[in-house]
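Dear H.,

Thanks for agreeing to be a second pair of eyes. The structure we're designing against is below in token form, covering all 255 positions.
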């Protein structure tokens, strides 16, 4: 609900630019299907309802939810107009989602995994800004006039490297909580100290390939403007993520 609130608010503020965008012009507010007063009312209702519901989970979750909402309001009204600061605000938004999950479940998220989320979000946001600049120039987003393509290429490369580094350190330095099963004893007998070994490191090549493939789609086809479409439509990325999920799930819950 809070995410929906942030997207609707963003569409309200951006509707003059969205009208010039070939895809965003079809959104309800930009297309005139939903008036700005009605959209504002929806933002108010969703925000209030979500914050009240968050109190039923915990005070900590309410605090994270409030900060998340506040961040997106400031992003839509101010941060998105500032180059570099806008993509950092997006990254912090994804980190807050992770912290919210931690508050709900009580599971501790290791610092290197948090940093992986942070840098991966910066990488995806940089890719998106680059695609917007190349495909549409500055017509669909005012802050793009303050970006240079060379800067975006530098940030994309830097954040991709930091994502891989952080994830690699996570798999090497941190041991996720493992569930004991009947197979655990068998594997410990076949491979001494099986659980103590850094098995998560076998997933590093998958992460490296996933980032490389994502970058390939950006530079060859300029598809980085819609990360949700890349992740859900590219067969190579889907297979890579599926294999990664199977390996991680197996290591934690099976072996």
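And this is the sequence the design step returned. I haven't edited it by hand at all.
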């Amino acid at each position: 609900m809070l995410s929906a609130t942030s997207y609707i608010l963003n569409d309200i503020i951006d509707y003059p630019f969205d009208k010039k965008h070939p895809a965003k012009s079809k959104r309800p507010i930009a297309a005139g299907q939903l008036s700005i007063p009605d959209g504002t009312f929806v933002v108010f209702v969703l925000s209030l309802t979500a914050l009240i519901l968050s109190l039923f989970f915990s005070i900590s979750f309410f605090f994270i939810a409030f900060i998340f909402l506040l961040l997106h309001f400031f992003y839509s009204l101010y941060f998105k107009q500032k180059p570099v600061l806008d993509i950092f605000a997006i990254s912090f938004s994804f980190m807050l989602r992770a912290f919210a999950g931690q508050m709900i479940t009580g599971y501790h998220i290791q610092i290197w995994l948090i940093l992986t989320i942070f840098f991966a979000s910066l990488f995806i946001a940089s890719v998106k800004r680059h695609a917007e600049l190349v495909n549409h120039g500055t017509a669909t987003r005012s802050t793009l006039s303050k970006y240079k393509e060379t800067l975006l290429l530098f940030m994309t490369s830097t954040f991709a490297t930091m994502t891989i580094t952080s994830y690699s350190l996570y798999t090497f330095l941190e041991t996720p909580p493992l569930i004991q099963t009947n197979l655990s004893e068998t594997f410990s007998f076949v491979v001494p100290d099986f659980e103590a070994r850094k098995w998560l490191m076998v997933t590093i090549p998958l992460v490296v390939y996933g980032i490389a493939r994502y970058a390939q789609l950006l530079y060859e086809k300029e598809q980085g403007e819609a990360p949700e479409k890349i992740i859900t439509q590219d067969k190579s990325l889907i297979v890579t993520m599926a294999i990664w999920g199977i390996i991680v799930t197996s290591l934690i819950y099976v072996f």
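Two observations from my side: The chain has ten helices and no strands. Residues 98 and 152 are 26 Å apart (CA to CA).

Warmly,
E.
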